[in-house]
Amino acid sequence: MNPDLIILAGTVHTLDDDNAGDPQAPVQAVAITNGVIAAVGSRHEANQWAGPRSRVINLGDATLTPGLVDCHIHPVFGLDLTMGADLSGATTLEEVRALLRQEPAGDGGWIRAWGLNPNAFGTVPLHRDTLDDITGDRPALIRLFDAHSALTNSKALEIAGIRGRHEFGQAAEVVCDADGVPTGFLLEAAAMELVKRHMPQESFARRKARLGALLQDLARSGLTSVHVMDHSEESAALFRALEAEAELPLRIRSAPWCMPGTGEAEWEDLARATGTGGRRWSVEAIKLFVDGTVDNGTAWLYEPDLYGQSTAPFWPRPEDYRAAVHYFATRGIPTATHAIGDAGVAHVLAALETLPAEALPAGQRRSVHRIEHIETIPDEFIARFKEQGIVASMQPTHCTHYSLADHSDNWSTRLGPERANRAWRCRDLREAGVTVAMGSDWPVAPFAPLPIMADARLRRRSGHPEQEPIAPHQALTALQALEGYTSHAAKAAGLWEVSGSITVGKRADLTAFELDPLTTDPDELAASGVLGTFVDGEVQFMLERLQ
Questions:
Q1: Helix axes 264-273, 318-329, angle to 10 degrees
Q2: Which of 259, 494, 524, 547 is least crowded, fewest Cβ atoms below 10 Å from its Cβ?
Q3: Neighbours of 91 (CB within 10 A)
């Protein structure tokens, strides 16, 4: 056979149809030729495969699986969202204040921070006064953890010329008090852009360096591919610049945004961009939004939240959203729609259910369509996902990091017990036969996949056994959690024929674990390590002791 590479491991979980995660499977060797899996078998068989040019990597007792895929992440967009002080660990207002006092001013004297959890404010309203006494005359922009809102101080509002309410072509808001004076709280991208456009921009060279380092960190965490839920001309330029210097350490599948206020001319440009890319990155889908977030009152719910908010769609004319989805779907282009509230998810389901069966030319494969986040839905929605083959793309750590079992957190308080008890219904969707892909939504939550898989099983934050699980009946099994990052991730991208399992003829994208993800206690798994990753059968990361 004389393969390029033979990998030996204590356990190999192929996740194919014949060996769906059986921990007793005898497979312990994988042969790779020209980036493709050429053989799968025992160590004895591997001795017969080896030829004079074959390299052998012996992982010892390690576990080998298909390469892990984060199905929802923002590496380029996240460069902006992670500038300044990291507030993600702050649990009280005093901790927030202390971190901001320590943050030096950046370019132009701006104070920046990110990851702010509104739970840290308790009953104190999000208001510019909270920042003014800390930042003084220095302008400040503080991003909230959900990436859909920000808090600014009085100086930033002055620089941006924001003195009252604004009208937008999408669901966005400059929050004002009863007298029409801006509070400093900005909801959604269009409102935040009013301030952001006045901030100094980071150089391309600096952004390229930061992105390159981030992609290396993603590979070290065990990821071999990511589904990037944004894209721009800058993204393409950054990917090209990195590829001009070296191979990207993982695959990147991007989806540019289709926003309200656009029409067929703009949709045609987006459609034309699909299929473009480089060696390991490409534009393959379209990202849309029908609502915002529960935490800032911009989700789309059937009934208002505790404060009378979250009642409006992101598209002022929801029928325009439906027209956009039909435009892309009838051209065989996959869509991924951000939908968090029950009314938002219902609208996306209805739009996808009305796609004409005969829309595609004969022989053209129907595209896969996804709904992202799906934080609260009633029982009757579950079967509709399965009936239409719609993928549920979910982020378990949004549940375990930002909500609590006693419903005292901001998300649960806004929704009330009935809707909060429908939180992140991963198990119900899996039991119904729905493809459930998993991811981090970094920088909203950390990207390390092992803790995310552990949280999906625990329904609490891994490493914190004192915490009560949130809706524990929605916990995934160990196999389901691994599938969410492997086989189901491939199906979510319409790539099951070429990836997602260790099967002869498929891409040689693989991840090596220190501990077996199917038999290890989830808290222990979350604290364990990744030994290496392979993309196209090439080592992207590997511990020195194994090289």
A1: 40
A2: 547
A3: 11
Residue owning tokens 């600096």: 206
Number of alpha carbons in the 13 Å side-chain half-sphere of residue 75: 33
- Beta bridge partners, 143, equal 150
Evaluated on CA atoms 420, 423, 429, 435, the torsion sign reads positive
Peptide bond into 378 cis (omega under 30): no
Residue with tokens 């191979």: 247
* 513: number of Cβ within 10 Å: 26
Chunked mean pLDDT (size 10), the chain, 547 residues: 94 78 69 97 93 93 98 96 91 90 85 90 86 89 91 94 92 93 93 94 95 98 98 97 97 97 97 97 98 95 97 96 96 96 98 77 67 97 95 97 95 97 97 98 96 98 97 98 98 96 98 98 98 97 74
* Cβ contacts of 192 within 8 Å, gap of 6 or more: 141, 149, 150, 186
Sign of CA pseudo-dihedral 299, 301, 306, 310? positive
Angle between helices 204-220 and 233-245 (to 10 degrees): 70
CA atoms within 13 A on the CB side of 398: 30
Chain mean position to CA 250? 15
What is the Cα–Cα distance from 341 to 360, expressed in whole angstroms?
A: 31
Q: Whole-angstrom Cα distance, residue 39 to residue 46?
A: 9
